[in-house]
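Throughout our pipeline, every protein is held as a single compact record rather than as scattered files. The record that follows is passed on verbatim for readers who wish to inspect the format.
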Amino acid sequence: MAEELSYVLLTPYSLRKSRTGGIISRLLARTGLELVGGRMFSPGTELANSYAAVAAGESDPKHLATQELIRDYIRKNFVTGPDGIPPRVLLLVLRGEDAVAKTRIVTGHIVAARPRGETIRDTYGDHIVEGGKVVYFEPAVLAAPDSDSARAHLALWARHSDSDGGILEDSVIFPAGENIETTLVLIKPDNFRFPNARVGGVIDIFSRSGLSIIGFKVHHMSVAEAEVFYGPVLGVLLDKMREPTGKRARFAVEEELGVPLDPATEASMGELLGPIAGRAHWESIVQFMAGTRPAQCPPGQRDLPGSEKCVALVYRGIDAVAKIREVLGPTDPSKAPPGSIRKEFGQTVMINAAHASDSPENARCEMEIIRMAENNLKPLLEAHGLRV
C-alpha cells in the first residue's frame, strides 16, 4: 500500500495538562509512522467552525450523538473564550503505509465499551454519562475517519496556517512582575532512528518544568545552518583539544617509536594537532545534526535541508531558560543527575538527546538560524499532492 499522510490534533486541554509527551510517545511507538510535520495553532472562528463542520465524519448511527459532541467541543474550545486567552492546538502530521487507519486505531474511539488505557483516548480522554446524559466530554485528540477526510482536513488547516498558526507568544498569561522568558529546545536526531517513544519521553520530562509549549516544528537542519548554530562551539573545541591531543600524541609516539618526549614537545604537538582534532570533532557535530560533514558537502548543497531530523520546540514561562536546562542536565550524560533527560536518553557528549538555549538572547538567535517562525506545513502538504 502506498504511503499516505494522517494527522492528530492535540486539544487545548491536553496541552494545558502537559500531556503532549505521553500522547506523542504512544502515537509514534504504536503506529510505527514517521512524524514529518507539526505546527501550533490558535484557531480563529472561521477555522474552528470550518473544521467543526467536517471533523465528525462517522456514519454509524449509534455514534451520531458523539459526533455532535465533537462538533460542539471544537466550536467551544478551539476559539478564544470569555477569559480572552487564545487556545493552543498542536497539529501533528504523520506519514506511512495505511497511516490514517493506524492513527485511528491508536487514537481509539471516544466511546469505549471497556476502557483499559489501551488507546490514547482510553488514557487521556473522557466521555462520562450519568442518567443517560453526557456530563463531561474531553476527546484529548482529534483525527480523521478516513484517507479522503485526512487530506481535506489537512488542506483546511494549511490554508489557515499563516493566519492562525506559528509561535503563540500571547497564548499563556502570567502574573505581573514575573521573569517571563522564551527559550528553544531541539530534540536531536538520535531520537529518530526508528519510530519509538523517545521523542514523547523527552517532551514528557520537559513538562516537569511547568512551562508551556508555544511553538513546534519538524526541522531538517542544513549544513549551513548547523555551521552557524554550532559556530560558537568551534572556537571552544580548537582551544580545548590542545592539551588532551598533545598528551595522546606523546603517548602514541612513545608507545610506537619508543622515543621519550619531554613536556615541551608534548605542548608543541598539542599546539599543532589540537586545532585539527578540534575541527574534526566540530565537523562530526555538524554531521550528526545535518547528515554531512562540512568538508565533504558540495557548495551547492550547503543550504539544502539535511538528511537528519530534529523537533524544535519553543517553551515560554517563568525563568524558562534555567528550568529547561535543569531538567535537561549537563552536556555529558555520565555526569547528569538521575531523572534528567540526558541521564535517561543521552549516550555521549554529542549524542545527548536534546539541546536547550543557554539564554533568552541565544534562544532568539538560534530560532532565527533554524527559521522557527517559518511555515513549513504548506510545502510539506503540497509535496504530497494536496492543494492548499
In short: The mean pLDDT is 94. Residues 1-166+373-388 form a domain with the Alpha-Beta Plaits fold (CATH 3.30.70.141). The radius of gyration is 24 Å.
